[in-house]
Amino acid sequence: MNKRPDTSCKCDVCRSWCDRRVGWFLPEQIGEIEKHFKKPIAKLIGNILAVDYWVGGKDGGKDILVLCPNFVGNDGKLIPFSPYGRCVFYNERKECDIYEIRPYECRWPTHDFHGEENDHEIVAHEWSRVQNIFDELEIEVPEASLFDVLNFMKDGLISGDV
Ligand code: SF4
Questions:
Q1: 22 domain-assigned
Q2: What's the CA-to-centroid distance between 23 and ligand 1, angstroms?
Q3: Ligand 1 centroid from CA 89, angstroms
Q4: Domain count, the chain
C-alpha cells in the first residue's frame, strides 16, 4: 500500500470532517492505540472506538470490518449504515484529542475518502487481512434496508459528501 503523507488537520475543512465523519485506522495502528489507552481494542470498541465496514470487499464479496473512532451518541459496537456523526475525539477547542495517534485517514487533506484510487477501499483491503481480530466481538453487519440507503443519501447530501 502506498501511504499518503501526513498532513496537519488544523484547517476548517478538515475540522468540519471531524464534526460529521470519522476516518479509519490502519491495522498497524492497533499497537499504538492499545498503548495509548492502556487497554485492548476489544475493551474500547462500543465506547470510544467502533467498527465500520466496507460493503462487499475483495475477498469474495464479504463485508470488511475496519476500526475507527466512535460517534458521539452511538453506544453500539458498529457504526450505523449512514456513517455520519461527530467524532468522540473532536473536542470543544475544535481539536483532536488523539492527534498523535489519529487514524491514518484523518491525516489526509479533507479526508478525501473517494479520491482517484478510492483510497477508502484500499484501507479496507488492509483490514481484510486481519478480520480475525474482530472474532471475539461477534459483530453482525445487518442487511441494509431501503430506509438505510435513503438515510445515507440524505445525510450525505446534507454534509456535502454525496
Ligand atoms: S480522530 Fe481526530 S482527526 Fe480523526 S475525525 Fe476524530 S477528531 Fe478528527
A1: yes
A2: 7
A3: 6
A4: 1
How close are the terminal C-alpha atoms of the chain, in Å?
26
Q: Is residue 1 a part of any domain in this protein?
A: no
Answer yes or no: is 2 within a domain.
no
Quote the domain boundaries for residue 103: 12-159
Segment 6-65, tens digit of pLDDT: 666 667 777 778 988 899 999 999 999 999 999 999 999 999 999 999 987 555 678 899
Q: Pick the closest to residue 95 from 9, 7, 6, 5 (CA basis).
A: 9
Name the residue with the closest Cα to ligand 1, atom 3.
106
Ligand 1 interacting residues, C-beta cut-off 6 A: 9, 18, 22-23, 69, 87, 89-90, 96, 98, 102-103, 106
Does residue 16 lie within any of the structural domains? yes
* Nearest atom of ligand 1 to the alpha carbon of 90: 7
The per-residue pLDDT for range 59-74, each reduced to its tens digit, is 567 889 999 999 999 9
